[in-house]
Amino acid sequence: MHISDGILSLQWNAIWYVIALIFIAFGIREIKQRTSEDPSYMPLLALMGSAIFVIAVWHIPVPVTGSCSHPIGTPMSAIIIGPFATVILSTIALILHIFLAHGGITSLGANTFSMGIVGTFVGLGTFLLFRKVGASIWLSAGFAGFIGSVMTYITTAFELAISLNPDSFFQQWIIYSLGFIPTQLPLAIAEFIFTAAIVKYIVDAKPEIIKRLGGVVNG
Amino acid sequence: MDNFIKNCIILLVVCTALMCVLSYVGYISGAEMGGTDAAVEETAAETRGLEAEGIIPSVEHFGDMGEYVGFTLAGIVGGFIFGYFWIDIKGDNNA
User: Rounded to two decimals, what is the model's pTM?
Assistant: First the structure.
């Protein structure tokens, strides 16, 4: 999810920026509205933003593959504070990651799309689907983290393949996805565990936080 | 010390220990433990003869030490912000 500058074509960088900006606009509107209703909403967003910032830049070693990668944190955030605000937080986190040599300014739209939009909405969709079929909160949250994490990297592979290899797009998409998956699967399991644990913990210990932040756990 | 702080400290110790063990296992098996993002990106870029650029200066410009210091500062700042606002939330709950 941290594609560097100079990799994607100008055209695709522009397309991902436009898509990201649409979601960011909705996010700004949501945050403005909620802040006017509840002034304490902003510091609570900062809390979740700092969590996403650290989680998504955290190098987790995976000795089985001899490499390391990052969890994403956005499915957890989407469940707790809602999806559009999460897109804003992940964009801010990705901007700060650039200074830690992760990602790039021209590829910010693409990285926001994979981590901030796909990770968020696929994770949230998974959570809602599992809740609808009667799964417990921790199981639903866990699968949201797992699937959101995997889908973020499959989307990154998609972005690379469609920009760099349009002639053999499908084949390259599979190749790049297979490059990510061996390292990302153990991390997706870790994402399952911490998303399930944190959401369950907050719901049990501080359910009012979810209510105040506009999350979707209740229901 | 309340249960939340106890749980946080336990989680911190477990995560740190786990990462140290995993890194050590990777180290003794001779693996490079490089980032998957960069590896896949390089593979993809090579198909078109491209190379990653750094438009905005990052901690990499300060060498290995820059990365250590940068990530440490990022962790500290992120942790302080999280802790500060968590206290706010706890305060509201107790009010």
Answer: 0.87
The two three-digit tokens of residue A136, written as one number = 């417990």
Q: What is the CATH classification number for the domain harbouring A119?
A: 1.10.1760.20
- Does the beta-carbon distance from B92 to A100 stay under 8 Å? no
- Cα of first residue to Cα of last residue in chain A, in angstroms, is 32
Taking CA atoms, what residue in A is nearest to B94?
A206
CA distance A219 to chain B (A): 22
- Mutation pick from B2, B41, B68 vs chain A, by most beta carbons of A within 10 Å, is B41
* Ramachandran bin of A58, using left for φ above 0, alpha for ψ from -120 to 50, beta for the remaining angles: beta
Does residue A162 lie in a domain region? yes
Is some CB atom of chain A closer than 8 A to the CB atom of B20?
Answer: no
d(CA A196, CA A119): 16
DSSP one-letter code for A112: I
Q: Is A174 on the interface with B (CB under 8 A)?
A: no
Q: SS3 for B35?
A: strand
Q: Give the dihedral of Cα atoms A205, B18, A95, A170; nearest 10 deg.
A: -110
Provide the domain count of chain B: 2
> Could you tell me the residue range of the domain that residue B6 belongs to?
1-34
pLDDT at B94: 47
Quote the pLDDT of residue A205. 77
Residue range A116-131, pLDDT digits in tens = 999 999 999 999 999 9
Task: List the domain range (segments joined by +) for residue A78.
Answer: 10-213
User: What are the φ and ψ backbone dihedral angles of A41, each rounded to 5 degrees?
Assistant: -65, -40
Q: Furthest-apart CA pair in chain A: how many Å?
A: 53
Residues 184-203 of A with CB under 8 A from B: 184, 201
Starting at the edge strand found earlier in the chain, the sheet holding A67-69 runs A60-62, A67-69, B34-35
Residues A13 and A25: their CA atoms lie apart, in Å, by 18
Tokens representing residue A99 in the block: 């200074």
